[in-house]
Specification:
Blueprint (H helix, E strand, L loop, with lengths): L1 E3 L2 H12 L6 H19 L8 E6 L3 H15 L3 E6 L7 H9 L3 E3 L8 E5 L13 H7 L12 E5 L26 E5 L9 H7 L1 E5 L13 E3 L2 H7 L14 E5 L6 H12 L5 E5 L3 H7 L4 E3 L10 E4 L7 H12 L4 E3 L2 H4 L7 H6 L4 E3 L3 H8 L7 H12 L2 E4 L5 E3 L5 E3 L12 H14 L4 H22 L4 H11 L3
Parallel strand pairs: 2-3, 2-5, 3-4, 5-6, 6-7, 7-8, 9-18, 10-11, 10-13, 11-12, 13-14, 14-15, 15-16
Antiparallel strand pairs: 1-9, 16-17, 17-18
Helix pairs in contact: 2-3, 3-4, 7-16, 8-9, 8-15, 15-16, 15-17, 16-17
Length: about 475
């Protein structure tokens, strides 16, 4: 997994490294990597020579990085212009280097540009962009370069205006509180804003430039980001001696006569996973068997037989019959995933004793509204922090669903899923996720790894389904079969 680090920790590591280097070395390393990436982008648009490059330059080191990178591009024949937002506080060395290389300063936005470098503010900033930066950012979409192409926007380290430690972006009517980049060139290590929250979307494609700071970090990462290699390493592969029971049996207590589709979808998600057998318990039994004849189906949890994990809640309802099924699931000495209606039935505290008495792991899968019902407030600006608090409070793994789903553990670890897509924002896809997660748990994965792998594959399936057309939950079930390891 890839780590992401808080600003204070990055600052401390940079200071320790700079103390061992000649002055300015770290900035030159950053500028060299930034210029190299910009040159590659310009090569895709007709070449560096003769290209028009605009630098948006703030007063800090972020602006200095942009100026030095601009100087390198100017030396290769690009026409580089720097718009200084605070001329008196612009980085003196960077500005001199730019002018020496043939670059110049301008007082306003030019009429055209092939590439724009966002060096307004870096990791030391707080809050959204203020004037005149916000106004300039709102006008960038109008810039065109050679061939009429829209100017490509590259952020220096982080998009200006985002909250670096949380990924929050202050909402504004005209959407100018932060830069929306096509590419972000990050220096040294990832920061949370590049991978979580609304800021992650604004970062675009993130490229990491090694400047030597990683080995100087002493603190624990703020979070980690799942990679495909993690999924492959943790996947419960079957072998020549495997049979349906040794691969794991997952129990699914979802759906109802009112919502049979929830049962069908959660069972579909479970069947796409690695387990060898799915047992369904609920009043949607007939519909489940009609669509999934390999399933063993009963009316109640107590009649289902032995399983290695339970999935409970999607479409179950909240009446006394549903509460009885939830109590039976919580009484079982196996891991349990609680989703949707199961979470609603936890809100009044009537299940608190059963939760405290459990030794087996629990995974809860709330979206933001369910989170708010459980906690009394929405996740807020810091989604990672909110998920960690809920995880510690409930002593459960929390899978907080969203575009960048957060998985939090009671011991204080957080993992962000990078494969999310807005295509999954449609009814029933959460049911599919819960079923897949249950299958992974029943196959023997620890609760945290099961949640991490399920979120990653669910996101991939959503993307694959979207590639084929408009997405519905059954499309996600079908796409899962194309993306699971095999």
């Amino acid at each position: 997994m890839k780590p992401a680090w808080r600003v204070a920790d990055v600052r401390a590591a940079e200071a320790a490294l700079m103390a061992t280097l000649p002055p300015g070395t770290l900035m030159q390393r950053a500028a060299a990597g930034l210029a190299r990436r910009c040159a590659l982008l310009l090569e895709e648009r007709g070449g560096v020579y003769g290209a028009s490059v605009l630098l948006l330059v703030g007063s800090g080191d972020n602006g200095g990085d942009a100026l030095y990178a601009g100087a390198r591009l100017a030396e290769r024949g690009a026409a580089v212009q720097a718009l200084l937002l605070d001329p008196e506080r612009a980085h003196r060395g960077g500005l001199e280097a730019l002018r020496t290389a043939g670059g110049r300063t301008v007082d306003g936005l030019p009429t055209w540009a092939d590439l724009v470098l966002d060096g307004i503010v870096g990791i030391g900033s707080s809050g959204g962009l203020r004037e005149p930066a916000a106004r300039l950012v709102g006008q960038l979409a109008e810039l065109r370069g050679r061939g009429g192409q829209r100017a490509v926007l590259v952020a220096v380290d982080v998009p200006s205006g985002v909250d670096v430690d949380t990924g929050h972006v202050s909402p504004t009517f005209d959407d100018t509180s932060a830069v929306s980049a096509d590419v972000t060139v990050a220096f040294g290590v990832l920061k949370p804003a590049l991978v979580v929250g609304p800021a992650a979307v604004r970062a675009g494609q993130v490229d990491l430039v090694d400047i030597g700071v990683r080995s100087w970090l002493r603190a624990t990462p703020a979070l980690h980001v799942t990679e495909w290699a993690d999924v492959l390493d943790w996947w419960p592969w079957s072998g020549p001696e495997s049979e349906k029971y040794s691969r794991g049996v997952v129990g699914v207590a979802t759906g109802s006569a009112t919502y049979p589709g929830a049962a069908v979808l959660s069972v579909g998600g479970a069947l796409a996973g690695p387990t060898g057998l799915v047992r369904y318990a609920g009043s949607a039994r007939e519909e489940v068997l009609r669509q999934h004849p390999s399933v063993i189906a009963t009316e109640r949890v107590t009649d289902a037989g032995r399983v290695q994990a339970w999935v409970c809640g999607s479409g179950l309802g909240t009446d006394e019959a549903a509460a009885t099924e939830l109590r039976c699931v919580l009484a079982a000495p196996v891991p349990a995933i609680l989703d949707a209606d199961a979470l609603t039935m936890l809100v009044d505290g009537s299940m608190a004793d059963r939760l405290r008495q459990r030794d087996a792991p629990i995974v809860i899968t709330p979206h933001d509204r369910e989170f708010a019902r459980l906690c009394g407030e929405a996740p807020g600006e810091d989604r990672v922090g909110a998920a960690l608090r809920l995880s510690a409070w409930m002593d459960a793994v929390v899978l907080l669903k969203g575009d960048r789903t957060v998985i939090a553990t009671p011991d204080g670890r957080a993992v962000v899923n990078p494969t999310g897509t807005s295509a999954l924002a449609t009814g029933g896809t959460g049911d599919v996720l819960a079923g897949l997660l249950g299958s992974l748990l029943a196959a023997g994965l620890p609760a945290d790894r099961a949640a991490i792998v399920a979120a990653y594959l669910h996101g991939l399936a959503g993307r694959e389904a979207a590639r084929r057309g408009p997405v519905t939950a059954p499309d996600v079930v079908a796409a899962l079969r194309d993306v699971v390891p095999r």
